[in-house]
Amino acid sequence: MDLSVWAATQPEKAALVGPTGEQMSYAELEATSNRIAHLFLSLGLSRGDHIAIVSENRLDLFPILWAAQRTGLFYTPVNWHLTADEAAYVVDNCGATVLLVSAARADLAAALPPVPHRLSFGGPLLSYDALESLVASLPSTPVDDQTEGSPMLYSSGTTGRPKGVLPAMPEAPFGTGLRFDHLMQDSFGFDSSTVYLSPGPLYHAAPLGWSLGAIRAGGTTVFTDRFDPELVLRLIERHRVTHPQFVPTMFVRMLKLPDDVRGRQDLTSLRLVIHAAAPCPVDVKRSMIAWVGPILMEFYSGSEGNCFFMIDSTSWLAHPGSVGRPVMGGVHVCDEAGQELPPGEIGQLWFDGMPPFEYYADPAKTQAAYDARGWSTLGDLGHVDNDGFLYLSDRRTDLILSGGVNIYPREIEDCLILHPAVADVAAVGLPDDEFGQRVHAVVTPADSVTPGPALEEELLAHLSGRVARFKLPRSFSFEEVPRLPSGKVLRRVLLDRHHRVDESLSQ
């Protein structure tokens, strides 16, 4: 699991294949990451210090990540889709000593707060030193006393300010690997023959961790700079991808491709199709299994690292809708008073048996994530069945409370997403004088579909009989559903937008 060992045994093998087909060999990744590691030490960084990185998906991002990983640093990839104010908050909050910004992110660079060292890569930036010039004459051999570092990631910020998740810094020499690296190899079959495909943004936990983990196993990581369903299928054939990773919205877009397009590419190299990040609608997953075979592997976890569930296709077909049983830690389903609920009853999910985490520089949020028993929560709701399989309902913050009844947006979204007139959908709760909240459906119509009252009636007819009457949307809007590149709905954006509309109509 030591990058230096792989670079010595397979120096010319592609460790990475980038968005335009450019490649970086193991030898190149080893040499460049070592030079950057020497730079970090020369800047006075030591184990446990922080760096922040603002960059799109690009090849020269990876030597920076590996340099931090091999020198015991915390590294925070910043979501460059954030506003300037939000990105500045993350850089400031994580306490970075070094800030590295891609030249392509000049739109954010000037707005970011001052830190002791500001470096650009991939081109010049005003008031930033060029990384490439600083490392050109530095050694390409490893620094002394290499030790494992760790990403310090921030939550997606779908409902408020992003929260920095500070894990326990591993006390291990570089090459030991992180706990998740071992899980990838032991449970997901990653080895030196693996070709992993990531179409997601590298500032998110799964694309980042799995991309690095594939290299730890001696395989090749192929990554894109955006998700395009046809491109993904072409890449699977071109690079003989064995382990692609998706989120459910990507499945939907691939399934909606014409049959002749889906059947055009050779997908026989696939060994395992990995998915996570959001619950997958049952009909969507059934359709994917029918297409590619029973090779889907789903997992449920969080940046906090306080749980890990997984389920293969065979188990899922016997327990449709489940995200599996825990392979790390344990789960408890509790009511509002903290009492455990029996199988089948929905409550808040709490986890035990995993290393503790904290929200960086935010003791109040950290305290709120734990109960008196030391169990921690991600704020999700769900239930377990009699066999111990977990089923997710929604996040507590997404729950719609209408007339004293809990309504889970996911039920409505799952029913609508495969309707041929729907390209994307999100359900939110808007204020209602009579019921407290009402269900509002935000629908992105499919191409060539005309939005309006007729489409509303068609969608309501589709929902009738599939969800209870009290769960039917009482209003619709036809617009783009705002999502992060990870696939998560930005519900706070929708709520802010529609609260303003409601207020203007009431004036």
From TrEMBL:
<dbReference type="InterPro" id="IPR045851">
    <property type="entry name" value="AMP-bd_C_sf"/>
</dbReference>
<dbReference type="Pfam" id="PF13193">
    <property type="entry name" value="AMP-binding_C"/>
</dbReference>
<dbReference type="GO" id="GO:0016405">
    <property type="term" value="F:CoA-ligase activity"/>
</dbReference>
<dbReference type="InterPro" id="IPR025110">
    <property type="entry name" value="AMP-bd_C"/>
</dbReference>
<protein>
    <submittedName>
        <fullName>Acyl-CoA synthetase</fullName>
    </submittedName>
</protein>
<feature type="domain" description="AMP-dependent synthetase/ligase">
    <location>
        <begin position="5"/>
        <end position="354"/>
    </location>
</feature>
<dbReference type="InterPro" id="IPR042099">
    <property type="entry name" value="ANL_N_sf"/>
</dbReference>
<dbReference type="InterPro" id="IPR000873">
    <property type="entry name" value="AMP-dep_synth/lig_dom"/>
</dbReference>
<dbReference type="InterPro" id="IPR020845">
    <property type="entry name" value="AMP-binding_CS"/>
</dbReference>
<dbReference type="Pfam" id="PF00501">
    <property type="entry name" value="AMP-binding"/>
</dbReference>
<feature type="domain" description="AMP-binding enzyme C-terminal">
    <location>
        <begin position="411"/>
        <end position="488"/>
    </location>
</feature>
